[in-house]
Automatic annotation (TrEMBL):
Name this polypeptide is given: Alpha-2,8-sialyltransferase 8B-like
Keywords: Glycoprotein, Glycosyltransferase, Golgi apparatus, Membrane, Signal-anchor, Transferase, Transmembrane, Transmembrane helix
InterPro entries: Glyco_trans_29 (IPR001675), Glycosyltr_29_Sialyltrsf (IPR050943), GT29-like_sf (IPR038578)
Membrane topology, as annotated: Single-pass type II membrane protein
Stated family: Belongs to the glycosyltransferase 29 family.
GO terms of molecular function: sialyltransferase activity
Subcellular location: Golgi apparatus membrane
Superkingdom in the source lineage: Eukaryota
Organism annotation: Branchiostoma floridae (Florida lancelet)
Keyword Cell cycle: no
Length: 183
């Protein structure tokens, strides 16, 4: 799960919607089954109070079973610590229609955008640049909070297609795509 604490200057202070990828689901399960790691989750979840925690890429029968167990565990955890987070996940794979059109698996970021376009009047996307260097040639981390990690090239994703799609949405005024440094 992407933290906001310590990165407020870059990502702001309010999270309305956080989408988990498959790896995050397993990490969260492990965190909630380890007392030491669970303590760190309390603080992180408090920063998400009032938001939606969502997983949309249900690819196989294993994920819904894990989500069902995780959902129950998370509900107890959130209630115990007085944290108000809505838990949501799709019963069917939202990525399938995109897979058919783009021939590869969409990133969690683009899936979050599709869902957010359903609920939000204005969408501004900061820093979604799926390449190892930014437009000015500066090396980028895979995620903003993982210092020292290289941008990974994943053969399952269509990064070029996604960034062109985002640019098209930006040019039509559907979203605001910000890839320049914030001022």
């Amino acid at each position: 799960m992407a933290p906001t604490e310590g990165f407020e200057k870059d990502v702001g202070t309010k999270t309305s919607h956080m989408m988990l990828n498959g790896e995050s689901i397993y990490d969260l399960w492990d965190d909630l089954n380890d007392t030491k790691r669970e303590i760190n989750k309390i603080r992180q979840f408090k920063t998400l109070n009032g938001s939606i925690l969502h997983y949309s890429k249900v690819r196989n029968n294993k994920i819904p079973r894990i989500l069902s167990g995780l959902n129950d565990k998370l509900k107890r955890f959130l209630k115990q610590h007085h944290i108000n987070i809505t838990l949501a996940y799709a019963q069917r794979n939202m990525a399938n229609p995109v897979n058919v059109r783009w021939a590869l698996t969409p990133t969690t970021g683009i899936m979050a955008l599709f869902l957010d376009m359903t609920f939000c009047d204005r969408i501004t996307i900061y820093g979604m640049w799926p390449f190892p260097v930014d437009p000015r040639g500066k090396p980028l981390n895979y995620h903003y909070y993982q210092v020292g990690t290289e941008q990974l090239q994943n053969e399952r994703h269509t990064y070029n297609t996604e960034i062109h799609y985002l640019a098209k949405l930006h040019s039509k005024g559907v979203i605001k795509l910000v890839i320049q440094p914030c001022r």
